[in-house]
Design brief:
With 324 residues, this protein is mainly alpha-helical. The longest helix has 21 residues. It is globular and about 60 Å long. The model has no long low-confidence stretch (mean pLDDT 89). The strands form 2 sheets. Strands 1-2-3 form a 3-stranded antiparallel beta sheet. It has a two-stranded antiparallel ribbon with strand order 4-5. Keywords: DNA integration, DNA recombination, DNA-binding.
């Protein structure tokens, strides 16, 4: 049997060849390790549908993982067979993924958003600005922290979201109320960039294809992260020391702190602000297609979930108790 370590090296090479994120790489490697360990460290070529089904059943029945986590494990295993081992999987057609239960998103009221945003004064710069942007633009957390200087259009009051979910680009608004804060952030960021150039550490991370096509782009001002980390860090893949973007965990932590300080009982995360952005736009009378474009949804059916939050699904009835 080929050594497992060599197999995992092949998985890493394939993931990097396909330009998947480092977090996806770590997640897939972890699930593949667990799959092999669960099956007595047999090589995947010696296994098939029965072993995969047993592993996924174990995750659900013994470890009580969520449907999305179970499907994530399956995606990792399928990547291993299809992309790395190049094995035909006739059993996949009969293999049903677990279905996500349909749940309504958690949405804050406008008053709750106001309270939460006021509490972001506890967050260090630029975390507070990022949190305001999440609600003001509908961006996902990773889209916000990975925002590049060239994609902020101050004159047009626009932000271009590059390579969003599904690899799509889109345009969203830059709120008027955040213009001055964004200008100040860019001024500070330019000062840092000038220092980085002097120290020879201005090379920002770029996707491999772009880095190869435009070798000098990594040092250019336009490609720098708007929300860069204060300290340098070593890139785990290239081992180059440079300035990365703000950690998403920082934003998550301060959103939770602000929600707690504001006395909000609902479970609140950065993504809650995106849900609230969409719902409040529909509440204000904007049409669903416009909201769909701003969110970057491929299918309007995905955006329709917010109409249920608003009770605009044709089921807005008055309780008989209110007629007594």
């Amino acid at each position: 049997m080929p050594p497992v370590k060599k197999l995992l090296d092949q998985v890493r090479e394939k993931i990097r060849f396909k330009h998947y994120s480092l977090s996806t790489e770590n997640t897939y490697i972890s699930w593949i390790k667990q799959f092999i360990t669960f099956n007595d460290e047999r090589h995947p070529l010696e296994m098939g549908a029965a072993e995969v089904e047993r592993f996924l059943t174990h995750l659900a029945a013994r470890r009580h993982v969520s449907t999305s986590t179970q499907n994530q494990a399956l995606s990792a295993i399928l990547f291993l067979y299809r992309e790395v081992l190049a094995v035909d999987l006739p059993w996949v057609d009969n293999f049903e993924r677990s279905r996500e239960p349909r749940r309504l998103p958690v949405v804050l009221t406008i008053l709750e958003v106001q309270k939460l945003l006021r509490e972001t004064a506890i967050a260090p710069a630029p975390i507070g600005l990022i949190i305001h942007l999440l609600y003001g633009t509908g961006m996902r957390l990773m889209e916000a922290v990975r925002l590049r200087v060239k994609d902020v259009e101050l004159m047009r009051r626009e932000i271009v979201v590059r390579d969003g979910k599904g690899g799509k680009d889109r345009v969203t608004m830059l709120p008027e109320s955040l213009l001055e804060a964004m200008r100040a952030q860019l001024v500070l960021r330019r000062e840092w960039h000038d220092e980085d150039v002097c120290l020879g550490k201005a090379n920002v991370w770029l996707p491999d294809a772009l880095a190869a096509k435009y070798p000098g782009a990594a040092k250019e001002w336009g490609w720098q992260y708007v929300f860069a980390a204060k300290k340098y860090s070593v890139d785990p893949l290239s081992q180059i020391e440079r300035r990365h973007h703000v950690e998403e965990k920082q934003v998550q932590r301060y959103v939770k702190k602000a929600a707690l300080a504001a006395g909000i009982a609902k479970p609140v995360s950065p993504h809650t602000l995106r849900h609230s952005f969409a719902t409040h736009l529909l509440q204000a009378g904007y049409d669903i297609r416009t909201v769909q474009e701003l969110l970057g949804h491929s299918d309007v059916a995905t955006t329709m979930i917010y109409t249920y939050v608003l009770n605009k699904s044709g089921k807005a009835v008055v309780s008989p108790l209110d007629h007594l």
